[in-house]
Design goal:
Distance between the termini: 61 Å
CATH architecture of the largest domain: 3-Layer(bba) Sandwich
CATH superfamily of the largest domain: GroEL
Number of domains: 3
Shape: elongated
Radius of gyration: 30 Å
CATH class of the largest domain: Alpha Beta
Largest sheet: 9 strands, mixed
Order of helices and strands: HEEHHHHHHEEEHEHEHEEEEHH
Number of helices: 12
Structural class: alpha/beta
CATH topology of the largest domain: GroEL
Strand content: 15-25%
């Protein structure tokens, strides 16, 4: 007689295929092991001599990079303890914009040493209190290691900015840091507000255009939009701009109704009224002094025809984030429906022109003196993956600049500070009890 064994205890509560670890050692050591594995993956990519990793994500997109933040974001890590490490790396990336790799590798090392202590019978909470003491002490020592005179740095002095930014850029693009740092510094200084603490990373944009080499990179005051202008007018200078978020088109009437048409004349008149309505709207925009219309949605053919008649340049920006940035660059208010804009709603650009860079047509919006400026670093490279990697280097440079704006103090580099901290902490540990 066969009977099935009924699971009992915790097994009866959880579904099949679960893992149940009991006891401190087993659970803790399994968690530490997972974190060590993650740290081993990123560790070899640390620093300028770090190796690149090839990561293929779930969409089969290929990443070749030594940027730890990208690597851990694209690895779909399931283990809960390792996930905490990933979150720590992400938090570091969002807060400082660099150093995600060090965060993960260092955490892995701390855990590896903790593992030996756990095996010798120390309780995790004792280890934690030890680590907490160490970090408090580290912060005290750090204050003493600051280079003298570094707190009076001028964030608008290009030489000083480049000298501090180089290290961060070199760790991503070794050998290219001179060219890149110079461009990034130019872009950052251009958009730096009166009070540097308010520097916004989002104001330095990156536009990636395949083709050419790094020496063709440039910095443009303003924005670079992928794509061509819609109408026949490709260039305007010193013009007012109107932005319509919903699109430029003849809208259907608001009330629904049935129209009975008896003759061809009536049909013709019906069509003409619609045409006249669109012309009236476009003429109203032209009369307000605007020379450029930017649409966040579709641009109707009839509307386009009248825009050309009234010599209006038409741009289409489908991304709403990009549209918001455009409004910020030019100081425009986006209008919801096609109507005559008020003078306050209009923005101003120094020039908008359609240019050809490396075989792709882009629209360059230059705004020399906007309230909230935007600068764009135009990156050139032979493949998409090189461009992506260059973009990450620019990202690190810009974030370094943000950190400089908040606190310009520096400590000696090339791991000198880290070795000194380690030496002093060791001395400190001999004095502590427990």
């Amino acid at each position: 007689m066969a009977f099935s064994m009924q699971p009992h205890g915790i097994q009866s509560m959880l579904k099949e295929g679960h893992k149940h670890l009991s006891g401190l050692d087993e659970a803790v050591l399994k968690n530490i092991d997972a974190c060590k594995q993650l740290s081993t993956i990123t560790r070899t990519s640390l620093g300028p001599d770090g190796m690149n990793k090839m990561v293929i994500n779930h969409l089969d997109k290929l990443f070749v990079t030594n940027d730890a933040a990208t690597i851990v974001n694209e690895l779909e890590i399931q283990h809960p303890a390792a996930k905490i490490l990933v979150l720590a790396g992400k938090a570091q990336q969002e807060e400082i914009g660099d150093g995600a790799n060090l965060t993960i590798s260092f955490a892995g090392e701390l855990l590896q040493n903790a593992e030996e202590l756990v095996r010798t019978g120390l309780h995790p909470s004792e280890i934690i209190s030890g680590y907490t003491k160490a970090i408090t002490k580290t912060l005290e020592i750090l204050e003493e290691l600051v280079e003298k005179g570094s707190e009076t740095m001028d964030v608008r002095n290009k030489e000083q900015v480049v000298s501090r930014m180089k290290a961060a850029v070199a760790s991503k693009q070794y050998g290219l840091e001179d060219i890149l740092s110079s461009h990034i510094a130019d872009a950052c200084i251009q958009v730096c507000p009166k009070n540097p603490v308010n520097f916004d990373v989002d104001n330095v944009r990156v536009s990636k255009l395949v083709g050419g080499v790094l020496h063709n990179c440039t910095v443009i005051r303003g924005m670079v939009l992928k794509g061509d202008a819609v109408g026949s007018i490709k260039r305007v200078e010193k013009a007012k701009v109107a932005v319509f978020a919903t699109g430029v088109d003849s809208f259907a009437t608001e009330t629904k109704g049935t129209v009975l048409i008896h003759s061809a004349e009536q049909l013709e008149n019906y069509a003409k009224t619609e045409e006249a309505k669109v012309e009236e709207l476009i003429k109203a925009v032209a009369d307000s002094g605007a020379k450029v219309i930017v649409s966040g949605g579709a641009v109707g053919e009839m509307a386009l025809h009248f825009c050309d008649c009234y010599k209006l340049m038409v741009l289409k920006i489908s991304s709403k984030f990009e549209l918001r940035r455009f409004c910020r660059t030019t100081g425009t208010s986006a209008l919801l429906k096609l109507s005559q804009p008020k003078p306050d709603d209009l923005g101003f650009v120094d020039s908008i022109s359609v240019e050809e860079i490396g075989g792709s047509r882009v629209t360059v919006v230059r705004s020399e003196d906007g309230g909230n400026k935007v600068a764009t670093v135009v990156l050139r490279g032979s493949t998409d993956s090189i461009l992506d990697d260059l973009e990450r280097a620019v990202d690190d440079g810009v974030n370094t600049y943000k950190a400089m704006c908040r606190d310009s103090r520096i400590v000696p580099g090339a791991a000198a500070t880290e070795i000194e901290l380690a030496r002093r902490l060791k001395e400190f540990s001999f004095k502590e009890t427990g």
